Task: structure prediction
Amino acid sequence: MNERIKEKLEILSDAAKYDVSCASSGSKRKNTKDGMGNSTGMGICHTYTQDGRCVSLLKILLTNYCIFDCAYCVSRKSNDVKRAAFTVKEVVDLTMNFYQRNYIEGLFLSSGIFKNPDYTMERLVRIAKELRTVHKFNGYIHLKTIPGASEELMQEAGLYADRLSVNIEMPSELSLKKVAPEKDFKSVLEPMGYLKEKIAENKEERKKSRKAPMFSPGGQSTQLVIGASPEKDLEILTLADDLYQQKSLKRVYYSGYIPISDDNRLPVIHQPPLIRENRLYQADWLMRFYGFKLGDIVDETHPDLDLTLDPKAAFALRNPAIFPIDINKADYEMILKVPGIGVKSAKKIVSARKFGVLREAHLRKMGLVWKRAKYFITCADHDFKFVGWKPELIREQISSKVLTKVANSNQLSLFD
Amino acid sequence: MQEITLTYDASYEGLLSAIFESYRLGIKVAKIVPIANYLDSLFEEPIHVETNLEWADRVKKGIGEKGGRAANQLLYRCFLSEQIDIELLILHFVQTAMKSHQDVTKNYRDEKILELHKIDKKIGREVHRMHAFVRFQKTKDNIFTSIVEPDFNVLPLIGDHFEKRYPAMQWLIYDITRHYGIFYNQEKIDFITFEEEDHQQLKQLSKEILTADEPDYQILWKSYFDSVNIPERNNRKLHLQHVPKRYWKYLTEK
Result:
């Protein structure tokens, strides 16, 4: 075997792994009879790393040579690491062979910036083009849009990719400028705005004619690094909410800062803020799938998410007037607001109650988390008189014992 | 009325035939069991029901009229769980559906119907795991071969996915515990079973039958898998939850 390929793969996948985006979903691409691969809209995680993260795509950099010096990035110019670069053919060969063996859903290709943005972007596009046209590859392709690349190249990228992404990384312009001297919000938000328009236009065209070529059918995503800068969750979630509303993003990823760098532009931390990262994802889900508004989750008086309690429960305890919710009468939307009830169990409840009133015994079997939900609901034979509506008592019952203990002993900064 | 045990040939159509027979004879059913699993008893005289495709179709049609495709799918998928007494849950569903004026498929208040949905969820999870965990190895005769040991008998449910994905390849997915596989020859899927001898060979595909570059791609995949790990985030519990140990045997990267 070519040892050099193996070494390149190790260097360039190691350098790409801090981009947490893993999705292979959101795009439907049919295969052809002589083609290879498809996307059904639902992603598949083919394996999981030791840290429990999904491995769905071959996620690599084309090269980790970079002319930029962003403090948060392992590939920054001033960092002393081994450098490597793949050829177009090597990336194509790895993708096709991994895909054939059912290791992956497709390719996630990013790159350090060498020479200039256009030169780099042009090569990323060339790989995607070769996969699609020469090798009839219809699996998933996620391409990074290099900030500063020309509109023509972004346009071409969209024709071959299922999803495009530009990472904002730092949740505020001030922080971004501090750690990434070559970048500003404009250089990231402008391509996003351009792609948003193109994706929307393409959707209209595809409505008129199914034969119109697809343009980034899986939309675009971005990533925010958490815990490397002083922003509160309020600022982070406000930015995320804006990106969903204004730029129609499909996903915002939150990446707990991992101390990969001794660069003095970044704070010294001992452990990545994994719990905070998890709470941000929970909040993000509430905004996208549970009908919660930003203001329901964080506001000026509660600018940070509670680490000891999930944001849905925290909302419930701050809003006692809404509860209890009558499982036999309440709208689906209200049932979704109950801690311990997810989308699936809410749907089950709404279907099942058509056949007769629901009792505690029914609910306990339906897959909701009874020990949480019971404080917030009534049903035919269950009311909550046994604790009454004392938020503090309920909080004690449902918050994480371990995390609360840590918080009380003032060691929460360990996780922060 | 005395309750009677019915036996059948372990096929789905056989089970539906037995259900049809229970209606035709107007009997109360004690159990429905595959004939091979039936243990003789002094106290009862079982009735064996031969598979009758016409009867099976009539039961499917009856179910379809009450609950549509979703109901038929639910029952077939649950049947593939091979769970003990799954037959009685399916019989319960048919009886409940026939009596009711409503579509009972989503009656989660009914404990046994809820149980069927729980089994269906497990089947769905296993199907998804097969979509994810099948690992093909390329043999010299150009067949991409994978060995699996799924928890349930899900091969009949996964062929479609792989056919859409790999229409221009020849591939074989072989369930080594149930001694059969699905083979796709670039046109259609066939169910096949190997002779014992081949069977042994299949368990561990030897280097001799693989293409020369196959081991290289396995090494590359493994080194990719190792280098995308982030040690600072280690979470073994989560890892095992997603990739239970019983699947490791056939995962190239493990």
About this structure: The radius of gyration of chain A is 24 Å. The longest strand of chain A covers residues 220-226. The domain at 3-222+244-255 of chain A is CATH 3.20.20 (TIM Barrel). Chain A has a mean pLDDT of 91.
